[in-house]
Specification:
This protein starts with about 20 loop residues before the first strand and ends in a 6-residue tail after the last strand. The protein is elongated and about 80 Å long. The protein has two domains: about 120 residues, no CATH class; about 35 residues, no CATH class. The chain is of the alpha+beta class. The strands form three sheets. Strands 1-2-3-4 form a four-stranded antiparallel β-sheet, with helices on one face. Strands 5, 6, 7 and 8 form a four-stranded antiparallel β-sheet that branches. It has three helices and eleven strands; from the N terminus they run ββββββαββααβββ.
């Protein structure tokens, strides 16, 4: 097989019937795989890195300087316009997904702190999908004895839902 020893040689193209759960730049995450322009890997085998490379500064906007000069002539209250600050965020964030024999990094330009928070939340969601897939791969599932105890019954007369051998609670009360 040509290029078998090269990094990313065993990666597959995007051929999935699963819905995309989260998209971060050019990275798409489904319940079972991560798709990038470099290829795809199982979501349970990846880790995520988020690097904020933006700068947030506060400056006096030009309109406030003009108003301060104009109103300074009329009264000293015009100097209060110099207290007006405008917050500017410039730069980018870098999201890196790494796995066994796989690394993909993307830089996404940002213009506000809200965009940074949104991208950070997306990466955290992708991390939780990866963690859930890793936990599912490690756990064998419920034992038959436990699964039998999770049988749900509902009494239509009282509206009480009972999980056998677990606990009771009132799901819906209808007048008798």
């Amino acid at each position: 097989m040509p290029g078998a020893g090269m990094p990313g040689a065993g990666l597959e193209p995007y051929l999935s019937d699963e819905p995309v759960l989260v998209t971060i730049g050019d990275i798409s995450v489904t319940a079972s795989r991560v798709f990038t322009p470099s290829g795809s890997v199982p979501v349970s085998e990846v880790s995520w890195t988020f690097t904020d490379m933006s700068q947030t500064t506060q400056v006096i906007p030009p309109w406030a300087i003009v108003c301060a000069i104009l109103f300074f002539v009329f009264c000293l209250l015009g100097l209060l316009f110099l207290l007006v600050k405008e917050t500017r965020t410039l730069g980018s964030v870098q999201v890196t997904v790494t796995g066994r024999g796989f690394v993909h990094s993307t830089q996404i330009p940002v213009g506000s702190t809200a965009q940074i928070a949104d991208l950070f939340a997306r990466v955290n969601h992708a991390r939780s999908v990866s963690a859930a897939a890793q936990a599912a791969a490690l756990s064998p599932g419920p034992q038959p004895e436990i699964q039998a105890g999770l049988v749900v019954s509902w009494d239509p007369r009282t509206g009480v839902v009972t999980l056998v051998n677990t606990f009771r609670w009132v799901a819906a009360r209808r007048p008798l």
